[in-house]
Design goal:
Elements lengths: L21 H22 L7 H11 L2 E2 H8 L3 H13 L3 E6 L2 E9 L4 H18 L5 H21 L27
Antiparallel strand pairs: 1-3, 2-3
Length: 184
């Protein structure tokens, strides 16, 4: 028996190992593409993907200990340290010893990050528009609802651990304040 011509590869064909998880495979591809699109938009603001989450936290919470910031963004400490070095070099953050505990480091957004706040907000709005193009408001609401359920499932799978959207323990930071987003 001779083999017939090979079937042309379909771009939407699943790898054999992923056939038991078509939604997970699609979600992984979408997350990757979303990060690439975010990276392109954030590049115009002069930052790398992930750094906007550090800045969002600082704009919302004001000065925080570096250790708390690491927990809030749920990244490896060395990654956050490198991000902070770059953001500090660009003039967007300032690090200083915590007056309440000189061993701890406080991180805060600088006044010059005001322009960055506007650029990040615009980038996220553009990303939302590109991501949801073609979906009507009802479909957008349904997508948010369904993704919330998926997130809850994954949080349970992760042993109940889900990264917080911001720093939960604001009292662990010093009582000194710097410029918050509202004040920028």
């Amino acid at each position: 028996m001779t083999a017939g011509p090979a079937e042309p590869a379909r771009s939407d064909a699943l790898p054999a190992a992923a056939r038991g998880g078509p939604v997970s495979h699609t979600l992984s591809r979408v997350a990757r593409l979303h990060r690439i699109a975010a990276g392109r938009l954030l590049k115009a603001a002069g930052i790398y993907p992930g750094q906007e989450f550090v800045m969002m936290c600082l704009w919302e919470r004001g000065p925080v200990r570096q250790s708390e910031l690491i927990k809030a963004v749920d990244l490896d400490p060395s990654t956050v340290t490198k991000m902070l070095q770059r953001l500090e070099h660009a003039g967007f953050v300032r690090r200083s010893p915590d007056p309440a505990d000189r061993r701890a480091v406080l991180v805060e957004a600088t006044g010059s990050s005001c322009a960055l706040l506007a650029e990040v907000s615009a980038a996220w709005s553009d990303l939302e528009d590109h991501t949801l193009a073609g979906l009507d408001p009802r479909e957008r609401a349904e997508l948010v609802r369904l993704l919330g359920k998926v997130e809850a499932n994954l949080c349970r799978e992760a042993g109940g651990y889900c990264p917080a959207p911001g720093i939960q323990d604001a009292e662990s930071t010093s009582s000194t304040r710097s410029t918050s987003a509202a004040e920028l």
